[in-house]
Amino acid sequence: MAVVAERCFPVLDMDRVRFHDTTGRCTVASADAAALGLGVCVLAAPEIVVGAVIVVGVVMVAVAIKEELDAYAFRQLYPEEVTSTVGTRTAPRETLAKRKPQPEPSGQDLLPPLPPRHRERPSRCQPIPVPHRGGDDDHNKCADRIPPNRYPGMDVLVDGKHFDALQVGALVLWEIKTDQFDTYSVFLRNRVVDDQVVEMLEEWNIARACGYGFKIGVSTEAHKKALIRRDDSLPIVVTGCKR
Known about the structure:
The protein is α/β, with parallel strands linked by helices. It folds into two domains: 2-99, no CATH class; 127-238, no CATH class. Helices cover 40% and strands 14% of the residues. It is built from eight helices and nine strands. Strands 6-7-8-9 form a four-stranded mixed beta sheet. It has a three-stranded antiparallel beta sheet with strand order 3-4-5, with helices on one face. The protein has a two-stranded antiparallel sheet with strand order 1-2. Helix 7 (186-209) links the parallel strand 7 and strand 8 (213-218). The radius of gyration is 40 Å and the shape is rod-shaped.
């Protein structure tokens, strides 16, 4: 400790370090001697250092010396702990970095605010698995396979409306159509398209209002083209599912 004190003492900021001899052992006769002798004496004698070193602000060298003094005090009080932890001493630089005061942030240093967390969906928009309707096995198998369905064997009820599937890995609701559209008469095709477009737009509005995407699956290209001619905004894909 004496060597550490003698080597480090000259670079201490004396405007920020105060020494107080609490025992009287380091008292010196002259003021010139006090400037050096008292400080070195106190720092070199850790058994009297309690209350003897006062650091005003953060002085890097003084903190390093203080680390040595704390270690000495610990060894005196708990020698068995020191023996069991030889070689595991924390690097002083890490300790000093933790104690270094952080400057006040300027407006330019501030990070942009994080985006607000996604609001929880209202209860009416929570997807509720319910049994498939209608008993059409081919249709239900298509609804389970194509998105694919997050709840196999089940429809999804959202805001009071049945959807054929909720896609795995995505918040996308699906409406599946397996009509044998290509076999219909012109009159029946027009009637089916009119009814289905109204239904699909209603489902799409519910999905969007609740924060979901929306897809429509039809079995044939002819069915898709007929729906697109009526409303080209509809998000339609051809599934190839047969009945």
